[in-house]
Each structure stands twice: as C-alpha cells, then as structure tokens.
From TrEMBL:
One of its GO terms (molecular function) is pyridoxal phosphate binding. Belongs to the class-I pyridoxal-phosphate-dependent aminotransferase family. Its cofactor is pyridoxal 5'-phosphate. It holds the Pfam family Aminotran_1_2. Keywords: Aminotransferase, Pyridoxal phosphate, Transferase. This is L-aspartate aminotransferase apoenzyme. One of its GO terms (biological process) is amino acid metabolic process. InterPro entries: Aminotransferase_I/II_large, AspAT/PAT-like, PyrdxlP-dep_Trfase, PyrdxlP-dep_Trfase_major, PyrdxlP-dep_Trfase_small. It comes from the Bacteria. Gene3D superfamilies: Aspartate Aminotransferase, domain 1, Type I PLP-dependent aspartate aminotransferase-like (Major domain). Residues 32-390 form the Aminotransferase class I/classII large domain.
C-alpha cells in the first residue's frame, strides 16, 4: 500500500523513542536513570483528582461541545486575565486534547501550502514536523549559545519574507529552559510591527515554571497591538502535573479559534469530559502546589547545572525556567569507546544508554546536534546517580 507523501517529510518523536528504550530496559531489570522524560514527577493535586471523581459521580461522561465546556472556557479566560492581565471571551478559547493538539489545530487552521513558519532553534521536536504535516515550510533559525539560544531582532528580521505566515516563540523553552524577558520581547515586537502579515504562536506551556523570581510576560502583554496577531498555547499538563489528562488550550483571535475548532470537530471532537471538569478545579483551585513545584524544579536545576559544568568539556546555558537543561557535549565527539567513535548527539545518546544506562535525548531532534537534552523532573537520588554516571561515562571516552 502506498502511504501519504507528506509522511516522508515527518520524523517520529525522538523523545518518545528514547523513553520506549528506557522502559524496555527497565522491564528487563536494568536500573535506568531516565533524563529523557518530559513531564513533572509530582502527583496531580488531590483537589483536582477529587473533581474528576465528582464528575464521574454526577455522570458527566457524555459528549461535550467540541471546543470545550462553557465552564472550563470561562475558567481559562479568568485564569488568563489573572496571570496575563489580558481579557478574552470564551469564544476566543479552544479546549483540545493537550497543548500539542492545540498547536496542531491552529497550524491546520491558518497554514496554506508553501506558507513559511519561523522556528528558532533549538526548538521543541514537534514544531517542524507539524508544520510539514500542514504542507507549510519550516524556516529554522539557528540561535547562538552566547545569546542563550534566543531569537534576536536581527535574526528575526532576516528570516521574514513575503511568505512568512507565523513565528513560533516558546518561553521558557523546551529544550533550553531559556526565557524571553520584557525588554527582549519589546525588541522582537518592534520587528514584527514592521511585518503585519506575520502572526505569533506563543507556546507558553512552561510559563508557571520560572526561576530567580522572574515575572511572566509574552508578546501580547508587552504591546496590545499584538493581540489580534497572537495565539496563546497553554495547558494544565506541566503546571499542574496533569500530562496524562490531555487538556490544553488555544486562546486568541476569534477567527482563528473558530477555524481551529472546525478542524477539531472533524478529527477528535471534544476532549475528555471528565478531564475538563478536573481542569476547572486546577485553574480555579489553590495554586500553592504550582509554586511548590516551581521552587523544587529551581533547586534541582541549580544542582544539575553545577554538576554539568564541573565536567571538563561540557558547556551549559543556565535554564531560566521549565525543567530541562541542554548541555553542549560536542567536545567529546570524535572520541571512542570499545573502538567505536561517538560522532554526534544520536551516538552520544546511544553510548549513554548502552554503557551508562542513562537515557537522554539527542540534540539533533531539537535542531542542535552539539547538545543533548536532560530533564530534571527526577528525584534527588536519581539526579545524583544519573549525573555520576554521565560524569564517569564522558570521562571514559578517549
């Protein structure tokens, strides 16, 4: 059978494949430290789980409106108002099966064949692939280590053409943890204001995990003229340790949200009804759990970065949020183990899983082959043991 030609342009998720290999080794009895995991290691808050139980008790198990139940859409508007200082109506909200689904729906709604999408690299693995699935053109803009892997005004200006439809901004970033502050966003918006045909997809999925008392800000918050050209992506996944509940949101101009809702209506239809009621409890309930998780991630980040920088040859930008580090390990490329040369990030990841039983994600999946991605959503014992293994393994390369 002949498959769709567009699939030839799409690669499977590297994070999922690495996770699968780590899980297989664990099933075989091997003790693996898994730095590849992309989800909080905390339990979903008790009041959120209780809301799901209550939803079951009240038989809230039927189909819901395609774009989400009105109660949740209003909760999203209130949450955005309180956190962003921006006002949206429920008609500007689409509830989807996770943030990833929300992004895909928006891209399907606004991209035509040949439309260009600017994606700063390093990037989240799925951005280019989703653009390709929409017959769009991913325009990868390489960002420098010295600039904390962030898009600069000059890089943005040079990347924009008449075919540019969208810019994707992810802050704090997966995989680097880098965050755009207000001054940096003001400079980027100054460029975007010269090109009114360009829309921004602001992937804010890690917005509540910020370090060093940083304050949340995105492009629509620094300049109200960007509101009609900005789509915000959010979810309960990372903020409330609800990755498996699969509830995400797209918030933005009603025309785009309505079109994305139409896409969803002909694919998945509504998200899980029970998870929607649980998400209301997350957004409207006690937020102490959010601050507690962010504080713990910050402490782990400091430890992990300090340990990585103690390994001769490793360079690492300090994350400013999220729960990932993206160390540059290219100084070890060309070195050998058992007569085998490690030449790139894929082979480095294979070396670490095979010889140290440590799972990491190759940086090539994120658009930078010099690096590997490590999640610090792990226990302290796992962090220490895993970093000890990485230290030993890297020093063993000759």
């Amino acid at each position: 059978m002949e498959l769709s030609k567009r699939l030839a342009r799409v690669q499977p998720s590297a994070t999922l494949s690495i996770n699968a290999k780590a899980q297989q080794l664990r099933r075989e009895g091997v003790r693996v430290v898994n730095f590849a995991v992309g989800e909080p290691d905390f339990d979903t808050p008790a009041h959120v789980k209780q809301a799901a139980v209550q939803a079951l008790h009240f038989d809230r198990t039927r189909y819901t409106p395609v774009s989400g139940i009105p109660e949740l859409k209003q909760a999203v508007c209130d949450w955005i108002r309180d956190f962003y200082g921006l006002n949206y109506s429920p008609s500007s909200v689409l509830v989807s099966c996770g943030g990833k689904h929300a992004i895909y729906n928006v891209l399907q709604a606004i991209l035509n064949p040949g439309d260009e999408v600017i994606i700063p690299a390093p990037y989240w693995v799925s951005y280019p692939e989703m653009v390709a699935l929409c017959d769009g053109v991913p325009v990868i803009v390489d960002c420098d280590f010295e600039k904390d892997y962030k898009l600069t005004p000059a890089l943005l200006e040079n990347a924009i053409t008449d075919k540019t439809r969208l810019v994707i901004l992810n802050s704090p970033s997966n995989p680097t943890g880098c965050y755009y502050d207000r001054d940096e966003l003001v400079e980027l918006v100054a460029v975007l204001n010269k090109h009114p045909h360009v829309t921004v997809l602001s992937d804010d999925i890690y917005s509540h995990i910020l370090f060093n008392n940083r304050k949340w800000v995105n492009v629509a918050m620094v300049d109200e003229t960007m509101l009609p050209r900005t789509v915000i992506i959010q979810a309960v996944s990372k903020t409330y340790a609800m990755t498996g509940w699969r509830i995400g949101f797209a918030v933005g101009p009603e025309e785009i949200i309505s079109a994305a809702s139409t896409v969803q209506s002909q694919s998945t239809s509504n998200p899980c009804s029970i998870a929607q009621w649980a998400a209301i409890a997350a957004l409207r309930g006690d937020q102490t759990c959010v601050a507690r998780m962010a504080e713990e991630f910050e402490n782990r980040c400091q430890y992990l970065v300090e340990r990585l920088r103690q390994i001769p040859g490793v360079k690492c930008v300090e994350p400013q949020g999220a729960f990932y580090a993206f160390p540059d390990v290219s100084a070890f490329y060309g070195k050998k183990y058992d007569g085998i040369v490690v030449r790139n990030s894929v082979e480095m990841a294979e070396y670490l899983i095979d010889k140290a039983n440590v799972a990491v994600v190759p940086g090539s999946a994120f658009g930078n082959d010099r690096c590997i991605r490590l999640s610090f959503a792990l226990s302290w014992n796992e962090l220490e043991e895993g970093l000890n293994r990485i230290d030993t393994a890297l020093k063993a390369l000759r």
